[in-house]
């Protein structure tokens, strides 16, 4: 760089996704150089590809598998799951009645999820993730990111619903109705 040139350098050619590059900067005055300043910069890895989710009909477990982009480098993967509940307005109303009028009763985690859901995040080394012990009547939003040296790729997102449990709805209705005696 020349003396009066802007102190900016752009490196945008021949960079590979997910690779870490070492940058060294020195200044010169006449023929004397300063101490070097080093920095490592990691480019964003490419998103995962070929995401497939399979549900085991016997257990309800969901196996998610994917492939890393062969042009990219990654250390591991971040899998984030978000749970939403399929409660109808009527079912939410029953939960509210239980909260307002029967505050001494405990609210189940399923009922608490009806008003927000649950988010979990985990790092995995291999391109697969098994979701087990799933609740019925939930819509699971699952996102996967490749991670290289703490730099995350764009998310790839899939959705998987679990079937609603009729037994749970029937029990919830009977429990709530039996306690609403005026």
Blueprint of the fold:
Layout: E1 20-25, E2 28-29, E3 32-33, E4 37-42, E5 49-55, E6 62-67, E7 76-85, H1 89-101, H2 109-113, E8 118-124, E9 128-131, E10 138-148, E11 151-152, E12 156-161, H3 166-179
Antiparallel strand pairs: 1-4, 2-3, 5-6, 6-9, 7-8, 7-10, 10-11, 10-12
Helix pairs in contact: 1-3
Describe it for me?
A hairpin with a 6-residue loop joins β5 (49-55) and β6 (62-67). This protein has helices at 89-101, 109-113, 166-179, and strands at 20-25, 28-29, 32-33, 37-42, 49-55, 62-67, 76-85, 118-124, 128-131, 138-148, 151-152, 156-161. With 182 residues, the chain is an alpha+beta fold. The chain has 3 helices and 12 strands. Strands 7, 8, 10, 11 and 12 form a 5-stranded antiparallel sheet that branches. It has a single domain, classed as Immunoglobulins (Immunoglobulin-like).
Keywords:
alpha+beta, Immunoglobulin-like, 5-stranded antiparallel sheet, 3 helices
Order of SSEs: EEEEEEEHHEEEEEH
Cα radius of gyration in angstroms: 26 Å
- CATH C-level class: Mainly Beta
Cα(first) to Cα(last) distance is 84 Å
Shape: rod-shaped
Runs in which pLDDT lies below 50 for 5 or more consecutive residues are: 95-115
In percent terms, what proportion of residues is strand? Answer: 35-45%
CATH topology: Immunoglobulin-like
Please work out how many helical segments DSSP would assign.
3
CATH superfamily: Immunoglobulins
CATH architecture call: Sandwich
* Number of discrete domains: 1
Oligomeric form: single chain
Number of distinct beta strands: 12
Determine the fraction of residues in helical runs and give it as a percent range.
10-25%
Q: What summary fits the major beta sheet?
A: 5 strands, antiparallel
